[in-house]
Specification:
By secondary structure, the protein is of the alpha+beta class. It contains 3 helices and 8 strands; from the N terminus they run H-H-E-E-E-E-H-E-E-E-E. The strands form 2 sheets. The protein has a 6-stranded antiparallel β-sheet with strand order 1-2-6-7-8-5, covered by helices on one side. Strands 3-4 form a two-stranded antiparallel sheet. The longest helix has 14 residues.
């Protein structure tokens, strides 16, 4: 996907620290530009799925691919209301296990943006070997925090 700009906007990196599962996984923003993101996940014992091999759990890959893909949805051209997004679909190909005791890198790029949907591709790899561990394609709904339709609001029709 090419080089991604190193992080200079600390508000973006700070935002990542406030996402509970991102903080639990130790995700660190390594690069960002509107429509692209790069995250590092330092190897940690609590991320291991198989203690005998030391391989990172597949659920960690899933969570990071989803999170980084969402971060890659462009924000500059979106209205404030559209910036709230929700994952509609996430398809992951797991290609090989991650090497034990090595950091995980995940990069994502939004390759198509419509009025209501963002399309993103991502890949996970390790710095020592840039062959993909997993890759994904995802779609995100824009404007996910829209008001409830009539009849679904709090207190409507309540007696």
């Amino acid at each position: 996907m090419g080089d991604i700009t190193p992080v200079t906007d600390h508000s973006i990196a700070e935002h990542l620290r406030h996402v509970p599962h991102a903080a639990a996984l130790g995700m660190q923003l390594a690069g960002y530009e509107d429509g692209r993101a790069l995250v590092r996940v330092p190897y940690a014992e609590h991320l291991v799925g198989d203690p005998d091999t030391g391989v990172i759990h597949g659920g960690v890959l899933t969570a990071v691919l989803d999170n980084v893909s969402g971060m890659a949805v462009p924000r500059a051209s979106l209205s404030e209301a559209q910036r709230a997004i929700a994952t509609l679909d996430l398809r992951i190909d797991y290609m090989r296990p991650a090497k034990p005791h090595e950091d995980l890198m995940v990069e994502a790029e939004c390759y198509q943006l419509t009025r209501a949907i963002a399309f993103v591709r991502a890949r996970a790899y390790q710095a020592s070997d840039d062959r993909a561990i997993a890759s994904s394609v995802a779609t995100f709904m824009l404007g996910a925090n829209r008001a409830a339709p009539p009849g679904f609001g709090a207190g409507e029709g309540a007696s």
